[in-house]
Automatic annotation (TrEMBL):
The active site is at E87, C150, H174. HAMAP family: Pyrrolid_peptidase. NCBIfam families: PRK13197.1, pyro_pdase. It holds the Pfam family Peptidase_C15. Removes 5-oxoproline from various penultimate amino acid residues except L-proline. This is Pyrrolidone-carboxylate peptidase. It is found in: Cytoplasm. It comes from Pseudoalteromonas arctica. Keywords: Cytoplasm, Hydrolase, Protease, Thiol protease. The keyword Nuclease does not apply. It is an enzyme of class 3 (hydrolase). It catalyses: Release of an N-terminal pyroglutamyl group from a polypeptide, the second amino acid generally not being Pro.
């Protein structure tokens, strides 16, 4: 067995604290179980982010500065979605339908003032998608990360990397409810924690080893 050391290249994977009245967040439930795992000869470091505008990015930036990851993959809950959603783009807007865990509810505020309207993920999203499909895990490319804390974190992450550390691969993935959550949301789809964990391992591996993404159709008509 390979011994993990601080000298190994590392991957930073984040999940969120519960929000919106939920007692847990499937993103952190899964991500926490990857802490100190080895994937493609890279040490995985798991980090829980607060579900709060601004503070979430402060915690994330501090961890990037501390660990110097080669890859940052942020995971969030998207209740109502039925598959692993690999986010293509983050937009420079906060428009919160509900308050965050600190009671903040920004409406039509930029994530970063005087910054670009959007950033694309710095991930091989098509290869990640294909790898998930080959593993028989439901997945899709998503063209909206919403306008809540998930998009806030994705945009803030990509802006930070663009400005300071352009060598880092980075992006965001949304996952469905766990079955224990879905039973409280009539008709909502869910995905088991085991499947989510498998998906995360597949995506992290693909993001690490891929040098160039595929050019295959994975768009939507609406």
């Amino acid at each position: 067995m390979t011994k993990l050391t601080s000298r190994m290249p590392c991957v930073l994977v984040t999940g969120f604290a519960p929000f919106g009245g939920e007692s847990l967040n499937p993103s952190w439930q899964a991500v926490s179980k990857l802490d100190e795992h080895l994937i493609a000869k890279h040490r995985v470091i798991a980090l829980e982010l607060p579900c709060e505008f601004h503070t979430s990015l402060e915690v994330l930036y501090k961890a990037i500065e501390q660990h110097h990851p080669v890859l940052v993959l942020c995971i969030g809950q998207a209740g109502g979605r039925s598959e692993i959603s690999i986010e293509r783009i983050a937009i420079n807007i906060d428009d919160a339908r509900i308050k965050d865990n600190a009671g903040q509810q920004p409406i039509d505020h930029p994530v970063v003032k005087n910054a670009p309207a959007a950033y694309f993920a710095k991930l091989p999203i098509k290869r990640m998608l294909l790898a998930l499909q080959q593993s028989e895990i439901p997945a899709a490319i998503s063209n909206t990360a919403g306008t809540y804390v998930c998009n806030h974190v994705m945009y803030g992450l990509l802006h930070h990397i663009n400005e300071h550390e352009p060598h880092i691969k980075a992006g965001f993935v949304h996952i469905p409810y766990l079955p224990s959550q879905a039973v409280h949301h009539n008709g909502a789809p869910s995905m088991s924690e085991e499947t989510v964990l498998s998906a995360l391992k597949v995506m992290i591996n693909e993001a690490i080893v891929t040098k160039q993404d595929l050019k295959v159709a994975a768009g939507t008509t609406h």
